[in-house]
Design goal:
Structural class: alpha/beta
Strand content: 15-25%
Number of strands: 14
Distance between the termini: 8 Å
Radius of gyration: 20 Å
Order of helices and strands: EEEHEHHHHHEHHEEEHEHHEEEHEEH
């Protein structure tokens, strides 16, 4: 199989007001600059850093390694939604064609582009195209939580405001999924985030440069997939963020396929990181990772089974949420045993009968949705072990998203 060229990218720093209270968040934005004629799956990637008061920021060694890895590796994925494989980076151009065309891409969870792109194809070809692995064309955001780096404000201590900060970045990445940035102001984001402290309001659609001057927001494509990642405190926050909706303005539109990459999950010190409010974080993470999250605030409306599965053909179901946990045997803040207990309670991942604390091993839930890697002789900080981390993430991704000669 021919190698896929690594996309050229442009990296810059922008400032985005948090949907929580308009505090400016420092965001390292990495976008592809080349336009491919081949089908691609536009993917939004978010990377969150460790606890700010202890020195966490996006210039952290693990965050930086993940950012560079996402930039330089040509990941592929098979999509259950054919629109994902048909929306290429050329949609960066189509984004300026007017709201009517973009709205067509959103109605019916992308059924309009499917009708166009598969018209005239034999039924067998249409079916097989759904499982064709396509490269991910990713827009990446590594950001600083409030009070970290050059972001304004202060750490909230409970983590609630930081959840809003993380969701702000997702709102920004999904700006190409709206008919206009101004729509973000009126979208009922409470339907997407039951823990929102500012229900009814999302990102205000504005971005700024380091001088505080408003600048034009980049025209982003419709995102067909998300990768929500975090390291330490950032992993805890990321695990409570629900998968983005296909159409952010319509809760009933269903969720986009979402992968969670959670490095050194701080289960052992969550009580400290949230000032004792870890229970609410665990409840949210459990709802997401076990498919119990209700995307609608209406009590009579339940999407509990729709989170981990989406209907694809008749009664067939396909996973749309997956999570990869990786930790070291020498983690100073969360022992392997503590993490296993947390995973059993919140993800239904059964621990092994005997835990080996000296060698590397892996564990995954029978359905493959939850995967844990435990790496020997690695502590919480991954200093000089970043390549080991990246190799493990690459191995998991390749296993979870196998490619084939096509």
């Amino acid at each position: 199989m021919a190698s896929i060229p690594v996309p050229r990218r442009y990296r810059t720093v922008v400032y985005i007001p948090s949907r929580h209270d308009d505090n400016m968040l420092e965001v390292c934005l990495s976008i592809p600059t080349n336009v491919s004629s081949q089908p691609q799956c536009n993917t939004g990637i978010v990377i969150a850093h460790p606890y700010g008061p202890l020195g966490g920021a996006y210039n952290n060694n693990v965050v930086g390694a993940l950012l560079q890895w996402f930039e330089t590796n040509s990941l592929q994925a098979t999509t259950e939604d054919p629109v994902s494989s048909q929306v290429s980076s050329s949609s960066l151009k189509r984004n300026s064609a007017g709201s009517t065309h973009r709205k067509q891409n959103l109605d019916g969870a992308g059924t309009e582009p499917l009708a166009k792109t598969t018209a005239g194809l034999p039924k067998k070809s249409q079916s097989s195209s759904k499982n064709r692995p396509v490269p991910l064309s990713s827009v990446i955001c590594a950001f600083n939580f409030r009070g970290c780096g050059k972001s304004k404000g202060k750490t909230s201590w409970t983590g609630e405001a930081e959840r809003e900060d993380y969701q702000t970045i997702i709102d920004f990445l999904q700006s190409g999924s709206h008919s206009g940035s101004s729509q973000l102001k009126n979208t009922d984001q409470h339907d997407r985030d039951s823990g929102s402290s500012t229900p009814g309001f999302g990102w205000n659609g504005k971005i700024y440069n380091e001088l505080g001057r408003e600048i034009d927001a980049p025209r982003l494509p419709f995102m067909s997939r998300f990768i929500l990642s975090g390291y330490s405190y950032g992993a805890m926050i990321a695990s409570t963020i629900p998968p983005p909706l296909r159409n952010p303005a319509v809760p009933s539109s269903g969720h986009l396929p979402t992968s969670y990459i959670l490095v050194s999950y701080p289960a052992g010190v969550a009580w400290f990181l949230t000032s004792g409010a870890q229970g609410s974080f665990y409840k949210r993470a459990r709802a997401i990772l076990q498919g119990e999250y209700d995307a609608s605030s209406t009590p009579s409306s339940s999407l509990s089974n729709e989170l981990n599965t989406e209907a694809v053909e008749g009664d067939k179901k396909q996973a749309t949420v997956e999570a990869y946990f990786i930790t070291g045997t020498q983690d100073q803040f969360t022992s392997t045993k503590t993490l296993l207990t947390w995973l059993k309670t919140n993800t239904s991942l059964d621990p092994p009968k005997q835990v080996n604390s000296t060698t590397s091993w892996a564990l995954k839930r029978p359905d493959g949705v939850i995967h844990l890697d435990v790496v020997e002789n690695v502590d919480h900080f991954w200093m000089d072990q970043e390549q080991e981390l990246l190799d493990r993430v690459q191995s998991w991704w390749s296993e979870a998203h196998p490619t084939a000669d096509i």
